[in-house]
Design goal:
The complex is a heterodimer of chains A (204) and B (201).
Chain A (H helix, E strand, L loop, with lengths): L2 H16 L14 H9 L4 E2 L1 H10 L4 E5 L3 H6 L6 E2 L20 E5 L4 H12 L5 E4 L2 H10 L10 H18 L30
Parallel strand pairs in A: 1-5, 2-3, 2-4, 4-5
Helix pairs in contact in A: 3-7
Chain B lengths: L14 H18 L5 H9 L4 H23 L14 H18 L3 H9 L3 H19 L1 H8 L9 H5 L3 H29 L7
Helix pairs in contact in B: 1-5, 2-4, 3-9, 5-6
Classes of the chains: A alpha/beta (204), B mainly alpha (201).
């Protein structure tokens, strides 16, 4: 038999067998610090509660809501169809299937947006894409969608339209009826001037 | 880093350009290995020439070992490589048909093109038959459709199926291939003694 064949055969055995002798090496798919910093500085990861409400109402199939609060809070109150992945479990193997699904937009949320932001950074470092944070979290959700604040009469058309949308969304999520003041029980509306001008939309 | 297209390092539109370059290289290697000769190919079935087995096994070994080290170095993530789904029964039948074509015509689809490229008439005839077969199959596909998709095991690899690591699969495969090289070398030596030798082109 040709000597070269024997040398090649030995080489293959060494290469294939040698792999087992190599030290463990973990290929971490984390992003570069510069890229991470650029993404953190950008605010494009934030989605407003209005956008989230609209996507839920429209039944957007690409929306994946992830509640990063603890299990107790999740069962107390959460958004419809939200998945609960508590912050301390984000690295757990069984939850990885929920992240990085093709064409899905993952929206993290918590009570405010601090915890969700932290989870966003971790998931980003893990190499997942299409990650968003619900701006203002559930506190903002309550104050804008569930109990929207009526704009002033002098508010812009956009602010009134937004309020109408929020009222509709509120009905959608709470199941409440339109509160039409009854003729008898109608109280005279006293317009109170607020000390500080409040911003009609957002503000969380 | 890799694979390059799924990771977005190369735009998806380059698929065809890369495929063309790889195709040229593949055709060149096939021809250089003597695969444009149907005698070389059919020789596997008669036991006088196992060049097909050696070339393809070597290609697989280089690929497996290379991929393993590329993964180790972090140059490629083999979890992102597309794995074709496995359909055992249709694949076995397909392999039998392919083997039948191999032994009767002395070509597989790729090698028939290399034979055609160097002007062999049997290569042209085989290729014409190949297209005719594709046409008949496509037209009659609804008849086979149920069987065609039978027993889908999904995008499974040998390692996943057996529950062992890809590294162990590679090692076992290397040993099996080397044993196969040696055994076929012995068979070749024995068979060639008993048949009238001929000169390969």
């Amino acid at each position: 038999m040709n000597k070269n064949y024997i040398i090649l055969a030995i080489l293959f055995i060494i290469l294939a067998g040698g792999y087992f002798l190599l030290p463990e090496r973990e290929n971490i798919k984390q992003m570069k610090p510069e890229d991470l910093m650029r993404d953190i500085v950008q605010t494009s990861r934030y989605v407003t509660t209005d956008q989230v409400a609209e996507m839920i109402i429209e039944g957007d199939p690409t929306l994946e809501l992830i509640d990063v609060r603890n299990e107790y809070d999740y069962f107390e109150y959460s958004l419809p169809n939200a998945i609960n992945i508590p912050m301390d479990s984000i690295l757990v193997e069984e939850y990885q299937d929920y992240l990085g699904i093709e064409d899905m937009n993952v929206v993290f949320f918590s009570n405010d947006d601090i915890l969700a932001d932290q989870v966003w950074v971790i998931a980003k470092r893990m190499g997942y894409g299409s990650l968003y944070v619900m701006e203002g979290g559930l506190n903002c959700w309550i104050s804008t969608i569930i109990k929207p604040e009526a704009p002033q009469e002098t508010a812009s058309k956009e602010a009134i339209e937004l309020y109408d949308f929020r009222m509709g969304a509120s009905m959608y999520f709470t199941g409440s009826d339109i509160s039409t003041p009854s003729e008898e029980g109608a109280k005279p509306v006293t317009v109170k001037r607020k000390k500080k001008g409040s911003v009609a939309e957002g503000g969380c | 880093m890799g694979p390059l297209i799924p990771q977005g390092l190369i735009a998806g539109g380059w698929d065809f350009v890369i495929a063309l370059l790889l195709g040229i290289a593949f055709g060149f290697i096939l021809e250089a290995s003597g695969f444009s000769s149907s005698r070389n190919i059919a020789g596997v079935f008669y036991g006088y020439n196992f060049v097909v087995l050696r070339v393809f096994f070597t290609a697989v070994l280089v690929c497996m070992v290379g991929l393993m080290y590329f993964h180790y170095m972090g140059w490629i993530d083999y979890n992102l490589i597309y794995v074709l789904p496995t359909f055992p029964q249709p694949m076995i039948l397909g392999a039998v048909i392919m083997g039948f074509g191999f032994i009767s015509a002395g070509f597989c689809p790729g090698t028939s093109y290399t034979a055609m490229a160097i002007g062999k008439i049997d290569g042209f005839v085989f290729t014409a038959g190949l297209f005719l077969g594709i046409f008949i199959f496509s037209e009659a596909f609804p008849l086979f459709e149920d069987f065609y998709y039978k027993g889908n095991m999904g995008n499974i690899t040998i390692g996943e199926f057996l529950g062992i690591s890809n590294q162990l699969v590679t090692f076992i495969f290397v040993i099996v291939a080397l044993v196969a090289f040696y055994v076929t070398w012995l068979i070749e030596k024995r068979v060639r003694k008993t048949i009238t030798p001929f000169k390969f082109e």
